[in-house]
Write a structure and sequence with these properties.
Layout: E1 4-9, E2 15-20, E3 26-29, H1 36-49
Antiparallel strand pairs: 1-2, 2-3
């Protein structure tokens, strides 16, 4: 099963998104957004930028 993005509301009523792997494990989570549309824009930004994002090791 492919991964999926989920949009949900947190306890404060803000919109958030998380990326779940095919096995159901959460592998990424977004910040709190004031609107559902803003959360959807956050998902689109991840989709657009992740394929070319570099890995920076800060350890």
């Amino acid at each position: 099963m492919a991964g999926k993005f989920e949009i949900y509301t947190d306890a404060a009523g803000k919109y958030r998104f998380r990326l779940k792997a095919g096995n159901g494990e959460i592998i990424a989570a977004g910040e709190a957004y004031n609107s559902k549309a803003a959360a959807q824009n956050g998902i689109e930004a991840v989709k657009k930028n992740a394929p070319t994002a570099s890995v920076v090791d800060l350890t």
